[in-house]
Structure formats: structure tokens, C-alpha cells
Amino acid sequence: MALVKPPLVTVIPGEPVTAQGWNALVDGLSALYDAVLALGTGALEVSVTFEGAVVPGARVVAEPLSGSGNPIAGVGPFPGRANHLVAGVSDGNWRVHVLADGFEAEVRDVAVPSPAPVAVTLRSAGVAVPDLFGRPAQQALTTLAGLKIELDLILDGTGQEVSRTSLPPTYQNSPVLFQLPAAGTVVNPATQRMRLVLAAAIQVEPTVTMPSLVGLTADEAAAALSRLGLKVGRTQVRTLVRPIPAGPER
Predict the structure, then answer these.
(1) Looking at the domain assignment, is residue 141 inside a domain?
(2) Were both Cys, which of 19, 195, 218, 247 would link to 180 (CB 3.0–4.6 Å)?
(3) Least confident of 150-154, 165-169, 200-204
(4) Are residues 104 and 148 in the same domain?
(5) Cα angle: 51, vertex 54, 60; to 5 degrees
(6) What pLDDT is stored for residue 36 in this prediction?
(7) How much of the chain, in percent, has pLDDT values that exceed 90?
(8) Is residue 56 included in any domain, yes or no?
């Protein structure tokens, strides 16, 4: 029960305490006892797992089914303790509610004191996101399609948006660099989407080995370049003037 502060009456030394004042004092002490007893001194442990592993971020709340009292939230696992701890429960029947994002809510009725931890195994409310890091983009999209997980956005390493409905051929082998939500996150395919970041596509330009054109005429040089798919651009013609050697000094 909730503790309510009763009206407090002050008296002057020497004055007798009235029956009304005494009763208010007794009522206040009685309410104090009831409130303290309602808090309880017991503890309840609850293990929350999925496929044998502790579920991070799970929330545990216990509410009394007998007598009066308020719901008590459990303290989550911390180093050295794998179970949730609900402290301050009194003897009697309690209902334990377990909630976690991506999982169906679970309810357990427990009698306190309970010597053993209450074991709660959650059931997935969706599908677990696979680890796509390093996978070729086309393979990643095929994996997500098989899980019926749709994409909201695809970006490459330069921030350029990539089509998610028709992946360009240049990006099909680009590895996945980042994904959101992270691998292992349980999502509901009907309401949640994914985002991917791919490595920027590499543009491969054709190259040729430049032949030697020394000694060829302009037409011969142009023909040789044409056979390699090259074109002659701006051309400058210069006359090579050889210096005349100086005669012997006289």
C-alpha cells in the first residue's frame, strides 16, 4: 500500500493529549507498518534467454496478485549476474511480465518465495538480421529477399544512392561495408526495413600500349593509332633545322 502522511498535531507542554490526537498517532504508525510490510524483503530472480543466450535489453516487471502493493521493475543483468533481479517482493503470488524488442511478450505467475530463478525463454516476433559484412552486394540482396526483409536505402562509400530495385551491374560484386540494423537484431519484416553501405564501384577504363611512331609519316602514324582505337588530336608540324658546323679558325 502507499504510505500517506497523517495530519500531525502539536501540543503545548503540560497539555493533555486528546483522544483524537492519540488516534491520529496510532493510525499513522499502523499505516507505516502496513506500507513497510507491503514493500517486502524478498527477491526474485528471472532468467531471460533466446536460443540459449541472454537477451540484451529485456525488461522484467513483477506485480502482486494478492494483497496490496505496486509493480516492481527488475534490475537487468550486470557483470557477475546473468539474471534479472526483482528486489522487495513479499510472500505471495506475483505475475512476472517480460518484454524485449523483437520478441513476443511473456507472462509467468510465480509464488514467492521462489527458491529457483524463473526461467523465461522468449519467442522471436520476427527474423534475425544476418551478418552481411563483406558479402557481395547481389548475394546480400538475395539473402535479404529470402528472409523477406526489404531495403529502405543503399549508399556507396562516396555517399551516392544506389538503386535497390535494380542493382547496377557495376555494384553487384561490391562488398557490404555497413548494415543497419546490426547483425543479430530481430526485426519484423512487415514494418522494419534495412539500409546498406557498399564499397564504391570501380570504373575500369580500357588501356592500350602506345606504339613507337618514330620515323612514320603523319598518315602512317594516324593509321597505326586508328588500329588501336585511338584518334589523332591536335597536330603541330615543325621543321627540324640542323646547325651548320663551324669551320676551322684562321
Answers:
(1) yes
(2) 195
(3) 200-204
(4) no
(5) 115
(6) 58
(7) 42
(8) yes
In tens, the pLDDT along 29-54 reads: 777 666 655 555 689 999 999 989 89
Per-residue pLDDT, 75: 94
CA distance 150 to 129: 11
Name residues whose C-beta falls within 8 Å of residue 149's C-beta, 6 or more positions apart in sequence: 127, 129, 187, 189, 192, 193, 194
Instruction: Tell me the C-alpha distance between 131 and 180, whole Å.
Output: 10
The DSSP call for residue 172 is T
Which DSSP string do the residues of 181-197 spell out, in sequence order?
SPTT-EE-TTT--EEEE
DSSP class of residue 151?
Answer: E
What's the predicted TM-score (pTM) here? Answer: 0.47
State the total domains in the chain: 3
* Per-residue pLDDT band at 226 (split at 50, 70, 90): confident
Q: Which CA distances in Å does 5 have to 23, 31, 60?
A: 14, 9, 31
| Residue 213 resides in a domain | no
- Structural domain of residue 6, as residue ranges? 1-36
CA 167 vs. chain centroid, Å, equals 25
Determine the Cα–Cα distance for residues 17 and 57; give it in Å rounded to an integer.
56
Is 237 a residue whose pLDDT tops 70?
yes
- Which residue intervals of 100-161 are DSSP H helices? 137-146
